[in-house]
User: Which sequence fits this backbone?
């Protein structure tokens, strides 16, 4: 919910900068947010939506004398759907601002935001390059590079020497593993292997077994929120929770919505998330 709340606050600041007497100003400022409310990234989308709605509830639906209308559209985590919805919000709903969710959709929306000159808040995507896709993009969340580098530094400073990385096979996973490798090596550690797990319907079991066979002292894992429960269950089924291997990663593996379903498998995990 923190992501959505902070994003809504940033949008309100931007809105307040619009002159009330502007000849082209509308009586209602529309904010169109394209996020996954269904599909594999549901928990992320719902947190953003809840945070934005909470901010409006607490601070009122008016900024600088103008009513704010929040329009939420569900892309189900599909970039083509997100692009189409963003187009509709710009052309049909005539939104003044956009909000973008996960990386693929944010990438797909960028050309539209640029062409229409619509300021867009990236609320979820942690891939560094996203904000370079449009001069109208600003990020309110984090980058996976920041979190991955910090946790790698922590690991080597706390005795880690050999690590295996398990990451989802998409842009955020590539960034997470690349930065982790760089920082872990700089700290004197060795990354034995980087295992890439398919993003859709992942089965972590063979990758976890491969990681265990390599006998690392540390396992770095990045999976998107919503998949931590499956990871935790398969992690425990292979006895990795009792193997002595240190489990670390960005904050996604301990997402608030996933923790109730992970049991005790993730006890002792250390992450760089907030």
Assistant:
């Amino acid at each position: 919910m923190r992501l959505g709340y902070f994003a809504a606050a940033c949008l309100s600041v931007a809105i307040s900068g619009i002159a009330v007497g502007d000849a082209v100003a509308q009586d209602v400022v529309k904010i169109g947010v394209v996020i996954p409310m269904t599909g594999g990234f549901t928990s992320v989308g719902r947190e953003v939506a809840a945070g934005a709605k909470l901010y409006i509830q607490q601070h009122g639906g008016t900024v600088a004398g103008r009513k704010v209308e929040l329009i939420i559209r569900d892309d189900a985590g599909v970039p083509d759907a997100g692009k189409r919805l963003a187009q509709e919000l710009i052309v049909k709903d005539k939104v003044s601002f956009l909000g973008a969710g996960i990386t693929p959709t944010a990438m797909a929306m960028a050309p539209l935001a640029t062409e229409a000159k619509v300021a867009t808040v990236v609320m979820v995507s942690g891939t560094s390059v996203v904000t370079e896709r449009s001069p109208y993009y600003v990020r309110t969340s984090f980058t996976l590079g920041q979190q991955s580098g910090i946790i790698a530094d922590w690991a080597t400073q706390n005795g880690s020497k050999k690590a295996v990385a398990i990451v989802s096979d998409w842009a955020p996973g590539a960034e997470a593993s690349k930065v982790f490798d760089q920082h872990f090596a700089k700290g004197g550690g060795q990354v034995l292997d980087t295992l890439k797990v398919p993003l859709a319907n992942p089965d972590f079991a063979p990758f976890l077994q491969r990681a265990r066979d390599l006998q690392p002292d540390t396992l770095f894992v990045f999976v998107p929120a919503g998949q931590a429960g499956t990871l935790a269950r398969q992690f425990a089924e292979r006895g990795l929770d009792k193997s002595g291997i240190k489990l670390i990663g960005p904050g996604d593996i301990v997402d608030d919505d996933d923790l109730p379903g992970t049991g005790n498998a993730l006890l002792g995990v250390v992450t760089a998330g907030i």
